[in-house]
Amino acid sequence: MTDPEIQAAIHDMGRRARAASRELVKLSTEQKNTILLAMADEIQAREATILEENAKDLARAAENGLSKAMLDRLTLDAKRLAAVAQAVREVATLPDPVGEVLTEWTRPNGLHITKKRVPIGVIGIIFESRPNVTTDAASLCFKTGNATLLRGGSEAIHSNVALAAALQAGGERAGLPADSVQLIPFTDRASVEHMARMDQHLDLIIPRGGKGLIEKVVATARMPVIKHYDGVCHVYVAADADLQMAADIIVNSKTQKPGVCNALETILVHRDIAAVFYPLIGQRLSAAGVEMHADAEAQSLLGVASVPATEQDWSTEWLDLVLSARTVSGLDEAITHINQYGSHHTDSIITADRAAAERFQHEVDSAVVLHNASTRFNDGGEFGFGAEIGISTDKLHARGPMGLAELCSYKYLVDGSGQVRG
Prior knowledge:
By secondary structure, this protein is of the alpha/beta class. Helix 2 crosses helix 7 (about 155-175) and helix 6 packs parallel to helix 7. The strands form 4 sheets. Strands 10-9-11-8-7-12-13 form a 7-stranded parallel sheet, with helices on both faces. Strand 4 (about 145-150), helix 7 (about 155-175) and strand 5 form a beta-alpha-beta unit. The chain has helices at about 5-25, 30-45, 45-65, 70-75, 80-95, 130-145, 155-175, 190-195, 210-220, 245-255, 275-285, 295-300, 330-340, 355-365, and strands spanning about 100-105, 110-120, 120-125, 145-150, 180-185, 205-210, 235, 265-270, 290-295, 305-310, 320-330, 345-350, 370, 390, 400, 410-415. The protein is about 45% helix and about 20% strand. The radius of gyration is 24 Å and the shape is globular. The chain has 14 helices and 16 strands.
């Protein structure tokens, strides 16, 4: 197809999504839950077709030389597909935030004002690689009464199309309005630009992927964007920290799943405990296969091989078994370092001093700031949200793990008895 034809097709999908959004607001929570269960059933009913389409993606990915890790992210089998369906069922069990009264009050003139959660409308989601994002994003957006326009990466296009078709077909049989879940079948970068410019149809766009994709969407979008950006996450070990606790937290934060946005990337160690703590953590990280990029003081104390840290290392999201280490003079220097080099994602302090922890949590400008806990807890499931659309590094309107509530807006309902303004 030519670029004008692609643009016309995407705009038509946006128009139809807008029409669907006006029907979605009429559904009750019970109706939405019934539809979600039907979606999950249809995913499993189409297992053979979905796995056949996934095999096409895997074959092309292998031909293109994708890494073993990327191939694993793309792979669906019967067990993983059952988990995908189960995740949709779990969304049906979550409390519905739509219609929740946030606050209400009565004015002296008798006007009663209610602030209530409502759907955003039409949400565009641009993502890369993992096919389960198709079902996660669509089911969460649908639960909150939003129509969804999805645009996945080329690596998983066959899988994504098959999954989106299952969601819409299964849902429609249970009462889902037509065009509530649509997946753009074009994977060229121009389709991202067309999507980002059609503010007459999309109320919000959420890019999930690499830095290049996010920057392109931010530069192009005519509607609000919620970014899920870099995770340059820190752990600061204070002078009074329980060193064994600190080591356990650091190892977990770095090695439990190093390729995710809430994995640890830099440790900051108070100078007063450096001579004791660095050998301890150095041995444990080395045993876990972690490569250290350390400042001169840390290098001299780690007791294991390390690489001299560069200025660029302090702002690098490694997404691998690599960790930066810097020695600091205290809380002030740790906070300054994090606010300068971090990505406002997830940071943690290890200390027995509650006042110091409170100051760290207050002054570090990040979406999630922890005390005596692993950075890996910045997660919707771990927060009790049941599911998440991602982790926002923005401040408006969502920050941190985005659950169902963050996929809603609100409006004011004003009830009077004939009041007029004088």
